[in-house]
Amino acid sequence: MDQPQQPAAAPVSRPARSGAVEAALAVALGVLSAAFGLAPWLLTGARSPLQNLWAGEALPADMPVTLLPLSQYHATSIVALLTVGGAVAGLAVRIWRPGRRRLATGCAAAGVSAVHAIAVLQAFTTVGGGLTGGAAAALYVAGLLAGTVVAMAAAVAAALLLAAESKAPAALGVGLMAVPAASWLAFAASSAAGPGGTPAFLAAAWRWLPAVLVGAALAWCGFRPAVRLVVWVVNLLLLWLVPALFTSVSYVLGTRTYLGDFGEMSLLARQILAATLGPDGGAGPTVAVALAIGLAGAAALELRRRRVGS
């Protein structure tokens, strides 16, 4: 006599992680991402750059350890070191795809901000304590702190954009981070190779890397729905504006002649910005390359989609 068939066992599903577990993992992810962003500076030994307003004579080896390279000559590097940490956290959440995405994104951003707050507090306390007193030192610290706080906010924005489910904000996050990411890689390469040790081809590659990143992001984002065309316009504008801003800030803050003279600094900044954004500034070819990559990639992906759908 045939034995009655036993009912098939139900598939065993893994229990979903609790909100507390996902939150803790996301905070840890944010902490690690922020540390990764700071790594190129920390691996140099993290000795503070020499300060023009330092209270006494000091050699580079005599300077204290700081978690950020506080100096007007490193303004753009500070932006890169902070924002890349936020971008890595956002990308990590996007790859992870947790069940409570908003919770995880917020916790990851909080972890990034906590590390940044500790680094900023340690660096400014250490450098501020070693400077000469007076209005010039106070103005110097206040200016650096204002720029650093803006960079911290940009890091949070990058994390939120890149972790978003929709392609449009994620592609916008790539556009926001393209230039800082190239600056971060250049800083990491120069720190590892030492003065004059970066190969010439790598130095040339940093100029074109933002265009490649933006172009790839636009191709991935695509044209549909039509509102995504706004992302194309904004990303191309960012690719045109941000390198000019980086160049302007680096040049103006690196010129000791006008440092502290806000009228002359403002005039110099406007002149450099106008020259960099103009037809001879070199932004045109970069934007054109990004647009070409985006159009070609989007067309190829659309053709592939139609072939698969047919």
Automatic annotation (TrEMBL):
The chain crosses the membrane at residues 23-43, 73-96, 103-125, 137-163, 170-193, 205-223, 230-253, 283-303. Keywords: Membrane, Transmembrane, Transmembrane helix. It comes from the Bacteria. This is Uncharacterized protein. The keyword Lyase does not apply. Coiled coil: none annotated.
